[in-house]
Amino acid sequence: MFKKVLIANRGEIAVRVIRACRELGIKTVAVFSTADRNALHAKIADEAVCIGGPATKDSYLNEKAIIAACEITGADALHPGFGFLSENASFAENCRKCGINFIGPAPESIEMLGDKAAAKAAMKNAGVPVVPGSDGAVKSMEEAVRLANEEIGYPLMVKASAGGGGRGIRLVERPEELEAQIIAAKQEALNFFGDDSIYMEKFIVNPKHIEFQILADKHGNVVHLGERDCSMQRRNQKVLEETPSVVMTPELREKMGRAAVAAAKACNYFNAGTIEFLVDNKNNFYFMEMNTRIQVEHPITEFVTGIDLVKMQMKIAAGEELPFKQEDITLRGHSIECRINAESPEHNFRPCPGKITALHIPGGPGIRIDSSAYQGYTISPYYDSMIAKLIVYAPTREEALMKMKWALAEFIVEGVDTNIDFQIELIKDPVFEEGKYDIGYLGRRSNK
Q1: How large is the average pLDDT for residues 49-63?
Q2: Shortest CA distance to 426 belongs to which of 340, 314, 351, 358?
Q3: Which residue in 16, 253, 293, 339 is the catalytic one?
């Protein structure tokens, strides 16, 4: 096992990794920007190194500074968390060249799966169902018009090949919109990812967004840990998640789970990963993308399986075999996660940085808080606005819903605006309570 792990991230995921390292007896190194000098992760790690100014390019995306911090502190491994450099293949390769164990998949897997078009082709070859669309990146406007008219049909989606986080995505409902939407998607992709290549696929009307968590070791063993329903989204961003999904049957879970395992094996994948699918109203499912990192919503899977995913990441990276087989995985109970953000739903979810003057977090059996916030902490305008993840667990969905309602009601944050009341509205929404929501529901709800 590793002796010292550097966490190349910030916020609640950095705190989460530090705590997992403590349980494994591993020393930790936090990195922080000048804006995060008083951040919790910098305070609780065994060592902390300032790596640059507030802008992400100067700090949390500063590869040279992060690798230098590993060398200065003697860290023999690096955990990238999620976001920032977690899915950067060249960074993972640079860690390997410098003798630093990257706690994640091989750079080759990250590179292939980071290219959404290439990933789709690999899944197709592995027999994993994919959404009908272009084979790889679209090379010209003429090709796009031909594919749209002759093979895909309308409505369709234009997506950035190197995309993520809802960026570089456009819905095209009519032929006359195609060219303008492709130009817009390419420009946004170039701005955010430095790559303007796009691909096209059929738009599945009102699908569910269901993702499967997998764990794969370096010895060829792969298991899935069931699904998470991430369909409650606003502008392609997840708002809350739950497991299991109300639309899931044992037969469908078995089928999708086999596809998820096949997807991982198709790219010689190891470590934790998530295969994301779209599921239509007839329970047909289609591969969407694979995330080569730990997910924000991983705690709900930990609740229903009893498996610590972050500790498993480190054990796999250290060369250990999975201690269980697929038949050993049992899903028990129901778990829901709500993302608590410093934002104003009344003002189009505008971020609300500022100082937290009072903080009371809920507690009790089956309630978990993943957070880096504390009373007196200042939420920076430079980074995302997440304050905490509130996760609940109960034997049934009905009990989990009730527990989440009361936990949200007990969650008090003063000094900044939050989306807590908005989350309470969602949990009480009859459509959500009945499990009849899909990825377009919040958009339709806000337009009423």
Answers
A1: 96
A2: 340
A3: 293
Please tell me the distance from the alpha carbon of residue 301 to that of residue 322, in angstroms, as a whole number: 17
| CB distance 350 to 343 below 8 Å | yes
At which residue do the structure tokens 């796999």 appear?
316
C-alpha to C-alpha distance for 359 and 85, rounded to whole angstroms: 31
pLDDT in tens, 405-429: 999 999 999 999 999 999 999 999 9
Task: Report the length, in residues, of the chain.
Answer: 448
Distant-in-sequence, close-in-space partners of 406: CB < 8 Å, separation ≥ 6: 362
How far, in Å, CA of 296 to CA of 81, rounded? 9
In tens, the pLDDT along 104-115 reads 999 999 999 988
For 135-221, where are the E strands, in sequence order?
A: 156-160, 169-172, 198-202, 208-216
DSSP string, 35-95: GGTT-HHHHHSSEEEEEE-SSGGGTTT-HHHHHHHHHHHT--EEE--SSTTTT-HHHHHHH
DSSP annotation of 395: S
Is 293 a catalytic site residue? yes
Encode pLDDT of 66-125 as tens digits. 999 999 999 999 999 999 999 999 999 999 999 999 999 999 999 999 887 788 889 988
347, amino acid identity: H
Three-state secondary structure along 114-125? HCHHHHHHHHHH
The two three-digit tokens of residue 28, written as one number: 């930790």
Give the global pTM: 0.89
